[in-house]
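EI: anyone free to look at a 194-residue chain?
SC: sure, send it
EI:
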Amino acid sequence: MAEGRYDELLTGLRRGDIDLILGALRDPQPIADIDQTPLFQDSMAILARNDHPLAGVADLTPAQLARHQWVVPRQGTPARAQFDALFADAGIAPPVSIIEAGSILLMREMLTRGDFLGCISDLQAGAEIRHGLIRRLAVPADWPLRPIGVTTRRNWQPTAAQSLMLDLLRAEADLAGAPQGPGAMAGAPGPGQL
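SC: here you go
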């Protein structure tokens, strides 16, 4: 398993160094020689430490949020585009104090040690929220759902072990409320599916 920037992972995938990428799917698809198969949908969450000054404040506005320091995904990611759109759509200048990080572990540490706010995938933050380490803030944002799935080389044939792993991913996605319809990873793979 390798973690990294999407462009680096995509290069490794296309060279055959990496078998698949699990993460946010890109729209438009960045190149024609790959297949993207959705597993489930995810949305974004605004996070803070439990005793943050904004904790418990209802209906936070982009103007209120923009005044704070942030830990957010790096430029060029679908998550960052949604974060930036939260302020742009409201006609508000984006926050000036931003640390870029895609790791929920780093984000959690930054949030719990200061007045930072964080923006990351709701599902990525789920364990930290359930364990009471951080909290979701009440931001009435209309986040679009982001497709999360598997990216492979076109015509890639998984080994038996890889097929088992993909079956386990499908099962977990089904438990989380996977998308239905064409292109979804339900049942037997069809054309363009795993």
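EI: The first strand starts at residue 21 and ends at 24.
SC: 👍
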